[in-house]
Amino acid sequence: MDQRTRRLAGASVALTFVLVLLGVYTAAAGAGLTCGQRWPLCDGAVFGLFPADFPSFVEWFHRLWAMITGFVVIGATISAWRGEASRRVAYALAGATLILPSQIVLGALTVTRYELLILVAHFVTAFAILTLLVAAAVWAYEGSVDLPARRRQAALLAAGLLPFYALLSPRLVFVYSPAVQVAFYAVGMAVYAALVAVALTSGGRIRALAGGGSAVLFVELVAGRQSYGATGELLMVVGALVTFVVAGVVAWRLHAERDARRPTGGDGAASGD
Question: Looking at CB atoms within 10 Å, which of 33, 53, 89, 209 has the fewest?
Answer without folding.
Answer: 53
